[in-house]
Design goal:
36% of the residues lie in helices and 19% in strands. It has 2 domains: 183 residues, Alpha-Beta Complex (inorganic pyrophosphatase (n-terminal core)); 117 residues, Diaminopimelate Epimerase, Chain A, domain 1 (Roll). The N and C termini lie far apart (39 Å). The chain contains 11 helices and 12 strands.
């Protein structure tokens, strides 16, 4: 592990950034680090450029401290779960950056890069890194654990190893409330999320003899349901749950772009995402583009999947 304590000690102020379209891993990792460095006595700000932070994460310690803008001018930047600088929503070129991530598509944009593609979540990377050099606390462990169980879908992804369970056990040892985490992650769905899920499932299509599934979520359907971006998360997991399906694709029409979210069973779809300027993991990847409409994009992806021999 790199000597990040010496790096952090050179700065009075620290800015922690999580990526746009935030999920539990980026927010949990950022807030976990915030709790550690705040207790260490640093001036810390935790920032996300997105207007919509998932409300189901509002139980996390220091959630209300998340800001929309950076106020520190000469701070050390710590980035969480972001594979590239453009995912952060801020201009930080020229700043000293501690880049903490677990995406194999990471571009290593930091001054110091702690990127472990074998880890199940960015929070696992952060937990192991910071506990080796700082004193952790219950607030930090709660945030890191929430991020870990969310990114592994409660230890059901192929990134889960014995080490992941060991790390989870170490987090729980800080006397965190695992039932509170489970409730907030699994039982706080909005009505609009159920409406948009129903709409997406009604329009699903099967290709490649049932091994490929696609769903298109149009701007009109999003507006009708009242859904926000975070209500769309998890819909792709319903697609991959179909018994015959090996790859599931959801195309979401957002403001000015189409965002693609993909899941697979044992097929490396990160290579597919990289072809379109995105990235991700072996079984979970995605990208966004403003070059094609959703229907045309699905058609292009099907062709590419066949060309690459993924199905």
């Amino acid at each position: 592990m790199p000597d990040i304590k010496s790096l952090i000690d050179r700065y009075d102020k620290i800015t922690i950034l999580s990526h746009i379209n935030p999920d539990a891993d980026t927010i949990g990792t950022a807030l976990g680090i915030y709790a550690i460095l705040k207790a260490y006595g640093k001036q810390v700000e935790v920032v996300n450029a997105d207007l919509n932070i998932p409300r189901y994460l509002d139980f996390l310690p220091n959630f209300t401290k998340i800001k929309k803008q950076m106020d520190f001018k000469k701070s050390l930047i710590i980035t969480c779960d972001s594979g590239s600088m453009d995912r952060l929503g801020f201009e930080i070129e020229g700043r000293e950056i501690l880049n903490i991530d677990h995406h194999k598509s990471n571009t290593y944009y930091g001054s110091v890069n702690v990127v472990h593609a074998s880890s199940a979540s960015a929070s696992q990377v952060a937990f192991e890194l910071f506990r080796s050099q700082f004193t952790l606390n219950r607030a930090a462990a709660t945030c890191f654990y929430t991020a870990l169980v969310s990114d592994t879908q409660y230890f059901s992804t192929n990134s889960v190893t014995k080490e992941v369970f060991d790390v989870a056990s170490d987090m729980i040892a800080y006397d965190i409330d695992v039932s509170e985490v489970a409730y907030n992650l699994n039982q706080r769905r909005t009505l609009s999320s159920l409406r948009i899920l129903s709409s997406a499932l009604q329009g699903l299509e099967l290709h490649c003899e049932g091994e490929l599934l696609s769903m298109i979520i149009t701007k009109e359907k999003i507006k009708e349901s009242g859904a926000r971006y975070h209500d769309l998360m998890g819909i792709v997991d319903h697609g991959i749950s179909l018994a015959t399906v090996k790859i599931a694709i959801v195309a979401m029409e957002l403001e000015g772009v189409v965002r693609i979210s993909m899941r697979s069973k044992g097929i490396d779809i990160s290579t597919l995402a990289i072809e379109f300027g995105g990235g991700g993991h072996h079984n979970a990847a995605g990208f966004e583009t403003d070059e094609l409409n959703a229907e045309r994009l699905i058609e292009t992806l099907i062709i590419k999947i066949k060309e690459m021999g993924l199905l």
